[in-house]
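Researcher: I'd like a candidate sequence for this fold, 539 residues long. If you have to choose between options at a position, lean toward the conservative one.
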C-alpha cells in the first residue's frame, strides 16, 4: 500500500516536471522541414540575394529551412522534407536526379521562376504546360484587387489550365490573363522569383495556404516610428510629437541615437551631456514611446555627420566594414546601451543605421537583441534591402523581425502621403500583416497628423512594442519588456552576481530536494506508525 502511494506520488511529480519543462513536453508543435533549392542566389547586376529573401520570409511560419544549390542535391534528399521550394533565377537546372525526384515525390513542391519546363516535361500529374516568357505584363490580380506592377520582365507563362488547377493570382498584359501563382495536386508554381513589389506580398499571403497554417494569421497592426532622434534634436518638437500621439492613444517607437557627432568634428557628444534631452526621452517613454537603439552615433568615418553616415557598413565602398565586426558591434552596442541605461532610458529593440549591416553582423546582433526593426539587407555584395509584410521569428538572421514597409515622409515629394497610402493598400492584402512608417522629428507635425488620421480611418490597431516580449542584453545589463512593463537588471559586478545567482539557485534546488526527501520519509513514517497501531489494536 505504501509503495503504491509512493508510486502515484512520483508519477504526479514526473508529470508536473515534464509539463513545466518544454524540453520534456510536446507542447510545441514539431516544425515542418523545408528544402530550398536554387540555381543562383541573385540576378545579374542586382545586389540583393533572392534566396535569402525567401528563406527569411519562411520565418513567419513553423518551419525549419535548409538551403541547397541544385548541383549538390543528392538522390532521395527530398524524402527527408515536408516541402521543397525551387528558385529558378536563370533556369539552369542540370541535375537530373533532382528533377526525377521532384516528378516522383508526393511532398509539396513549389517551383518559383525559371526552369519550370524541366519539371513539367513528362510529368503526368500536372496538366498545365510551359508557354515561354513575357516582358509585357503590367498588372496583377489577387483577392478581388488589382495592382500595377511597373516594368518587371522575365515572367514565365504557363498554359492549358485544367479544372484540376487552382489559380491564386493572375497577371495581365492588358489583353490576356496568365497565372502568377497556380497549384495542381502537390505542385505549386510562381511565375517569377522576386523579392520586392506587391508580387512578393501576394506570395507571402499565399504561403498561409501552401503551409496550411491559418493559425499564424494574427490581428493586423501598424506602427509609427520617430526616426533619427539624437541629443541635438529640438526637444520642444519631440515633446509635441509625443503629446500628440498620446492624445490620440497611439503607442509609437523612437529610433534613438545616443551620441552625436558634428561634421568634420572629432568630438562625439553623448546624451549624458544633454540633460534636457534626457528628461525629454524619459517623458516620451511615459507617454507611450518605446525606444529602439539606432546605432551609437549613426556614423563611422571621420567626416560623417550623425544621421547621415553608416555605422555597420562601408557606405563609401558599398561593402562590409573591413574590421572585426564582432568586436566592433560589441563596442558600439555596449556604448549605446550603457549610455541609455545610466540615464534611465531603456531600448527594447535595434535598428541598423540606413538598415545597412553585413550578414555576419545580423548574426552577431542576435546576441544582444531579441527584436530588430526595419528592412533586411540580404547580401554582402552591395546595399540592397527587402521589405516584408509580417513579423518573422527565429530565422537565420533574427530572433524576431518587425518590418517597416510603408515608407517615410519626404517633404520634397508632394505625393508623399499618397505614396504611404498606396504602400498600405499593398501590404494590407496580406492576412495578419504588420506595417510600419517613420517620420523625422524636424518636419512639420502636420504630416504626422495626416498619417495618423489616415491609419485610424482604416480601423487598424497600433502596435505597442512594450506589450511584446523583448530583451536586450549586454554584459551585466539586462532589459526586458512584457505586457507594457519594462524590467531592468543592471549590476556593476556582473561576474560576482552571476556566481551569486548560480549559487543561490543551487541552494534553492538543494533545499527543494531535501524537503522532498524529508516529505517521503515523513510519509513513510506516518504510514508505518498507523500500520503498527492497527496491528497492535488487532492483537
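Model: Candidate sequence:
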Amino acid at each position: 500500500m505504501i509503495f503504491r502511494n509512493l508510486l502515484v506520488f512520483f508519477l504526479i511529480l514526473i508529470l508536473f516536471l515534464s509539463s513545466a519543462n518544454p524540453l520534456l513536453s510536446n507542447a510545441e508543435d514539431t516544425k515542418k522541414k523545408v528544402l530550398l533549392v536554387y540555381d543562383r542566389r541573385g540576378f545579374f547586376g542586382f545586389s540583393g540575394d533572392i534566396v535569402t529573401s525567401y528563406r527569411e520570409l519562411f520565418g513567419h511560419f513553423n518551419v525549419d529551412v535548409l538551403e541547397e544549390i541544385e548541383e549538390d542535391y543528392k538522390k532521395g534528399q527530398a524524402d527527408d522534407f515536408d516541402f521543397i521550394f525551387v528558385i529558378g533565377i536563370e533556369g539552369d537546372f542540370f541535375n537530373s536526379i533532382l528533377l526525377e525526384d521532384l516528378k516522383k515525390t508526393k511532398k509539396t513542391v513549389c517551383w518559383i521562376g525559371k526552369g519550370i519546363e524541366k519539371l513539367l516535361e513528362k510529368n503526368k500529374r500536372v496538366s498545365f504546360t510551359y508557354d515561354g516568357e513575357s516582358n509585357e505584363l503590367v498588372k496583377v490580380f489577387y483577392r478581388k484587387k488589382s495592382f500595377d506592377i511597373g516594368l518587371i520582365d522575365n515572367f514565365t507563362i504557363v498554359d492549358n489550365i485544367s479544372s484540376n488547377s487552382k489559380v491564386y493570382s493572375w497577371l495581365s498584359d492588358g489583353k490576356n490573363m496568365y497565372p502568377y501563382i497556380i497549384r495542381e495536386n502537390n505542385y505549386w508554381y510562381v511565375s517569377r522569383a522576386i523579392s520586392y513589389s506587391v508580387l512578393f506580398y501576394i506570395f507571402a499571403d499565399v504561403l498561409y495556404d501552401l503551409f496550411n497554417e491559418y493559425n499564424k494569421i494574427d490581428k493586423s497592426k501598424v506602427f509609427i516610428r520617430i526616426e533619427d532622434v539624437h541629443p541635438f534634436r529640438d526637444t520642444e518638437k519631440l515633446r509635441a510629437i509625443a503629446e500628440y500621439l498620446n492624445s490620440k492613444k497611439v503607442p509609437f517607437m523612437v529610433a534613438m541615437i545616443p551620441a552625436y557627432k558634428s561634421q568634420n568634428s572629432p568630438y562625439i557628444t553623448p546624451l549624458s551631456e544633454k540633460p534636457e534631452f534626457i528628461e525629454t526621452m524619459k517623458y516620451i517613454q511615459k507617454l507611450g514611446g518605446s525606444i529602439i537603439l539606432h546605432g551609437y552615433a549613426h556614423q563611422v568615418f571621420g567626416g560623417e555627420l550623425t544621421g547621415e553616415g553608416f555605422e555597420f557598413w562601408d557606405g563609401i565602398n558599398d561593402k562590409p566594414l573591413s574590421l572585426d565586426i564582432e568586436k566592433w558591434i560589441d563596442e558600439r552596442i555596449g556604448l549605446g546601451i550603457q549610455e541609455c541605461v545610466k540615464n534611465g532610458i531603456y531600448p527594447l529593440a535595434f535598428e541598423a543605421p540606413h538598415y545597412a549591416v553585413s550578414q555576419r553582423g545580423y548574426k552577431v546582433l542576435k546576441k544582444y537583441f531579441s527584436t530588430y526593426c526595419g528592412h533586411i539587407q540580404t547580401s554582402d555584395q552591395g546595399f540592397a534591402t527587402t521589405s516584408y509584410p509580417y513579423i518573422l521569428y527565429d530565422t537565420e538572421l533574427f530572433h524576431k523581425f518587425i518590418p517597416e514597409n510603408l515608407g517615410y515622409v519626404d517633404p520634397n515629394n508632394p505625393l508623399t502621403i499618397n505614396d504611404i497610402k498606396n504602400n498600405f493598400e499593398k501590404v494590407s492584402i496580406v492576412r495578419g500583416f504588420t506595417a510600419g512608417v517613420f517620420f523625422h522629428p524636424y518636419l512639420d507635425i502636420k504630416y504626422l497628423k495626416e498619417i495618423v488620421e489616415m491609419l485610424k480611418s482604416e480601423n487598424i490597431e497600433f502596435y505597442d512594442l512594450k506589450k511584446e516580449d523583448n530583451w536586450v542584453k549586454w554584459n551585466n545589463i539586462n532589459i526586458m519588456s512584457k505586457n507594457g512593463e519594462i524590467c531592468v537588471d543592471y549590476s556593476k559586478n556582473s561576474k560576482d552576481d552571476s556566481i551569486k545567482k548560480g549559487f543561490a539557485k543551487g541552494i534553492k534546488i538543494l533545499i527543494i530536494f531535501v524537503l522532498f526527501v524529508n516529505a517521503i520519509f515523513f510519509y513513510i513514517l506516518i504510514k508505518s506508525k498507523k500500520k503498527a497501531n492497527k496491528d497492535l489494536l488487532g492483537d
